[in-house]
Amino acid sequence: MRIAVQEEEFDLGAEANTFAAGDDANGAIVTFTGVVRDLASGDLDVMEIEHYPGMTERALTKIAEEAQQRWSLGDVLVIHRYGRLAPGDRIMMVATAARHRKDAFEAAEYLMDYLKSRAPFWKKEITTSGAEWVAAKDEDEDALTRW
Amino acid sequence: MDVLYFAWVRERIGLPKERIETEAATVADLVAELSAREDRYAAAFADLSALRVALDQELSDFDASLSGVREVAFFPPMTGG
User: Fold this and answer.
1) Which residue of A25, A27, A75, A84 lies most exposed, with the fewest beta carbons within 10 A?
2) Residue A106 belongs to a domain with what CATH number?
């Protein structure tokens, strides 16, 4: 398992290749990447991501460990950035490796659902007309009930 | 104990972290104590349903005991991913 909380960019291809080269017993590798999306109005300048150093790493580790208990996984990777990001920048990625794809897909979705509302990150959108904290969505909280 | 604030809670209170000497027994008691201190705290803590609290870096709730707790953090619902 690897958990990385970092300000700098990550190389999606290199990370996926390294992760996939881990163990031949894993017949399925799933990766998900989150990207800074421009707003409907198209005027997003910067996405600022704040986090709680210490708790972030603990929360992500706990979520990844829980996924490993629920599904049969060969490996788990979570990378999440903080700081100032621009539209199109990659915010985060998760990758799961398993013998079979069902475990890999489900565990990746579980990681994403929990990471959205249980890992201490906060997003602020800075546009030409001002800055606003992104509000948590009820549907993100509701998504946890299916697990 | 150390009290930390994140996101708009930090902005509203005007600082990221402070050291507080308190006899508060629970998180709710601490919130009441801070709110009585200055308007900026009262404004930040006006709607507790819009806030989350972590005790020693674990999510908790407002009626939790502060006994033995070294670090309290207040923040809005998280928006990771």
Assistant:
1) A25
2) 3.90.1170.40
